[in-house]
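Box 4.2: Ligand-aware structure prediction
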Amino acid sequence: MPSSKKSPSKTAVSPPIETILTTLTKTFPDHPMDTVTQNNPFKVLVGCIISLRTKDEVTMAACERLFAAADTPKAMAGLDLETIRQLIYPAGFYKTKAVTIQTICQELVTRFNSVVPDDIETLLTFKGVGRKTANLVVGLGFGKPAICVDIHVHRISNRLGYVKTKDPEATEWALREKLPPHLWSVINWVLVRHGQEICKPIGARCDVCPIEHHCPKIDVKARKSPKESATTQWVKTLEK
Ligand code: SF4
C-alpha cells in the first residue's frame, strides 16, 4: 500500500527550492499584508504585532482602522490605550497587543526619533518584538534580505526535506545558510499561504498540492478519508 511517508534515504537529494517557490508564487502572487502596510516599515511592524495568532482578514481590517486613526509612531503614541484596543478588536489578545503597540510607539518616539530601525538586533530590543516580526520588518518594510520563519515556514521546509530542524529559530539559521538570498523575502509569504490553505498542520492536502511531485512528504500523516473515519467509528462500536 503506498504511504505518504518516505524513508530518509529518499530525501537525501535537496528539493529544487527555486522551482518550488516560483510555482507557489504563481499560486499565491501577493503578500497578504501588502495592501495595508504598503512596504512602510512602521506599518509592517504594527501589522505584524496585530497578526500574531489572528486570521489574515481580521488583521487587515484591524490595521485599516488603526492606520486610519494614526499612521505614524508619534500619532499612534498619542492614542489612549482604550482607543487602540477598540480599533484592533477582535484581533487575538487585543488587550495585550494594544499595550505592546503603545509601548513600541512611545519607544520609537523617545529612543529613535520616530524612525523604525532597519536591523534585526535593534528591533529585538523592543518588548513584544521577536525574530519573526523583526525579520518581516527588515524584509518587507525595508526590502533587505531577511528570512521570516513562522510555524508554517518551519513545518513545510521540513516536510520538503530542505532543512531538518526542531524549531522555527533553527529553521531560520538553516535557511540563512542554504537558501539563495534572492529567495529570502519570498519564502515567508508563499509558505505561509501554502500552509494556511494546502500544506496544513493536520490533514495536508497533498492531492491538490502544486508541488507534490517535488515533495518527499517527510513526517506527513495521510489524511483520513470520510470512509476511513466511518469504519473506525464502526470498529469502536464493536469494541464497546
Ligand atoms: S501538501 Fe503534501 S505534497 Fe504539498 S508540500 Fe505539503 S506535504 Fe508536500
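In the box above, the bound molecule is iron/sulfur cluster. The two ends are 29 Å apart (CA to CA).
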